[in-house]
């Protein structure tokens, strides 16, 4: 059980201190994972909204290192599993073995080992796991609880960090729409573009040992137990104007009906492109993300630039397209989002 006395209290008058801690975490992670400032900012925003994140990208670009660095920054127990085709949901809940006395024994698996204090649950290569595992994860992400041994287990702090590499599509299981929708952000990670960062990654041995690299981050800089309350306070603290609300509604309308919004993409039949996914939940997540972005920028009001900064990572993974466009889905949806941002006039 968590010691209630140890849970940090988050008061409105201390919000500036929490912002300093959040920015310090961002700086420290940025020293360890170089050339990925954009992705680090998204992970920070997701944590401050107490949301789950899926990273996608090339192999060996630092996704795992980044997630481990962030997990260390929030402190608390974490668990990590590798997605494999033979992983079953029960493997995450318990392990069965035979004890020295010859009797069967059950031990808690990765999800239950730390009780309700589990802070971060990493799911490496999530697309290698079967749909049954995705289903368990879906409930965990939506409700932060699971049922096992005829009991409800609550994991009130847990944040899911998942990654999948974008290269291998064979022998993998695409995440179902509902599970994808529960990720607050889906963020693409690519190679750093800065030549200096590239040089350092290859020649500086500091970047070759992930364990010592991650240990450079101050543990628990942004206490994981404060995140649910902090996320609520940030949402309450930052406001939106009627003009901003109209802007978000127009973006939503354009996502649902790009033709009516006058959006055209080369070689795409716009009238059949979008089949669903631009849901109220998705748009609510977008607004939550924009609140956090504004707060990190030191503002109490959401500006159009906040919405624009988080638009693609908040909504693109929720959009479902006609099957004829499935193979090129990622690129088309990204182009659609970019075209919408260009077309819809900001206040
Ligand atoms: N931007 C970066 N900053 C710091 N270290 C990096 C960066 N990119 C790669 N590395 C280093 O490269 C190695 C591989 O990184 P990591 O395992 O995090 O990649 P990955 O994207 O998770 O790969 P995979 O998809 O194969 O799991 C690690 O030693 C890591 O420290």
Written overview of the protein:
This is Transcriptional regulator methanol dehydrogenase MoxR. InterPro entries: AAA+_ATPase, ATPase_AAA-3, CbbQ/NirQ/NorQ/GpvN, ChlI/MoxR_AAA_lid, ClpA/B, P-loop_NTPase. GO terms for molecular function: ATP binding; ATP hydrolysis activity. It comes from Acidomonas methanolica NBRC 104435. It is a single chain. By secondary structure, the protein is α/β, with parallel strands linked by helices. 44% of the residues lie in helices and 14% in strands. It has two domains: 213 residues, P-loop containing nucleotide triphosphate hydrolases (Rossmann fold), CATH 3.40.50.300; 106 residues, Helicase, Ruva Protein, domain 3 (Orthogonal Bundle). A hairpin with a 5-residue loop joins β3 and β4. The protein is globular and about 75 Å long. The mean pLDDT is 90. It binds adenosine-5'-triphosphate. Adenosine-5'-triphosphate binds next to α3 and α8.
């Amino acid at each position: 059980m968590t010691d209630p006395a140890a849970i940090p209290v988050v008061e409105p008058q201390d919000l500036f201190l929490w912002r300093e801690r959040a920015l310090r975490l961002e700086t420290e992670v940025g020293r360890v994972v170089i050339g990925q400032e954009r992705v680090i900012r998204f992970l920070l925003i997701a944590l401050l909204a107490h949301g789950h994140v899926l990273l996608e990208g090339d192999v060996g670009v630092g996704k795992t290192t980044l997630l481990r660095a962030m997990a260390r920054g929030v402190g608390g127990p974490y668990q990590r599993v590798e997605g494999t085709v033979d992983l079953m949901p029960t493997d995450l809940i318990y392990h069965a073995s035979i004890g020295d006395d010859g009797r069967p024994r059950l031990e808690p698996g990765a999800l239950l080992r730390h009780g309700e204090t589990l802070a971060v649950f990493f799911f490496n290569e999530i697309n290698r796991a079967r749909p049954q595992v995705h289903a368990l994860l879906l409930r965990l992400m939506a409700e932060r609880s699971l049922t096992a041994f005829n009991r409800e287990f609550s994991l009130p702090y847990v944040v899911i960090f998942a990654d999948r590499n974008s290269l291998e599509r064979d022998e993998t299981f695409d995440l179902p729409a509902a599970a994808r929708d529960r990720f607050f952000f889906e963020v693409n990670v690519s190679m750093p573009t800065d030549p200096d960062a590239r040089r350092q990654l290859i020649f500086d041995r500091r970047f070759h040992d992930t364990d010592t690299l991650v240990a450079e981050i101050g543990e628990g800089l942004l206490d994981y137990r404060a995140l649910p309350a902090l996320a609520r306070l940030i949402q309450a603290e930052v406001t939106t104007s009627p003009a901003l609300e109209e802007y978000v509604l127009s973006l939503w309308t354009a996502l649902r009906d790009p033709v009516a919004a006058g959006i055209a993409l080369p070689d795409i039949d716009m009238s059949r492109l979008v089949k669903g996914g631009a849901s109220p939940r998705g748009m609510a997540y977008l607004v939550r993300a924009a609140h956090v972005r504004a707060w990190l920028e030191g503002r109490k009001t959401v500006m159009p630039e906040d919405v624009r900064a988080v638009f693609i990572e908040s909504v693109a993974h929720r959009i479902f397209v006609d099957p004829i466009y499935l193979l090129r889905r990622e690129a088309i949806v990204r182009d659609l989002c970019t075209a919408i941002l260009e077309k819809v006039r900001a206040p």
